Amino acid sequence: MTTAIDVDHLRTWIGRQQHGSETLSPFPARALAATLNHARLPDVGDALPAAWHWLHFLDTPSTEGTGPDGHPHKGGFLPPIALPRRMWAAGNLEFEEPLRLGERADKVSTISAVEHKSGRSGDLVFLTIEHQVHQRGRRCIREDQTVVYRAMPAGVLPMPAGEQAATAADWSRDVEPNPVLLFRFSALTYNAHRIHYDRDYAVHQEFYPGLVVHGPLLVLLLLDLATRQAAPIQSIRFRAVRPTFDLGTFSLRGKREGREVMLWSADHENCLGMSAVARLGAVAGSEAVVGSGEQP
After folding, report:
1. Number of structural domains, the chain?
2. Residue 293: pLDDT above 70?
3. Is there a domain that residue 292 lies in?
4. pTM score, two decimals?
């Protein structure tokens, strides 16, 4: 069944905004730090590590406002894109000042672009949202988040051939994507999308070969790898190349080139999963808590 995409209608959502405010409780950061086996847990007054604001300003749709896949219904802030599969495609973040735990912060999200493309798997719609996070009247983070929507396959399809990931790296770490790790991250981000924790649904309804490792989790793990080894991260841009599944241990790798760090993940077959470039530089007042210790 082919779904007509009225991209002109969807583009009427461009410019639509959503506002959020909250006091940044230390609990989500402490819970993620524990999940990542940090030796020290963040507390009130500490700077939030890069991109950990993803644990805050979360949408809390009602049960009635949530679809059978676990995603909130579309048509409010998000345009009603008539394609059921939804995954993070890319992002760009600039860290201008650190966010402080225990203090109030404000976030403004704006629909900035809607693009319709056709690929080998059919229609694709790319939705880009700009986020700005302020604290103490100053902008701390500017972010562009791109999400891709696509049709659901009619049955099991072979995974496309993956691009082999580079093995030469300055730093690397292996991670076992066990169900506890995936469930914890889903809970911390209030992400009910069932492909991350419901194996029966992921395999038999969305026809994946296993549970899907969250794209944001891969980015946070790559940032965690980099900040343990290098100076504070000033910015990062990333692109999801291929989904990573819980079919085996995946690897995080990083290589420093001057003021830039090349970061990437490789799945159990050494296929490139997430690719990122981070820019190093001092962020005023940044001494985010990143503890040493065992890895997940």
Report:
1. 1
2. no
3. no
4. 0.91
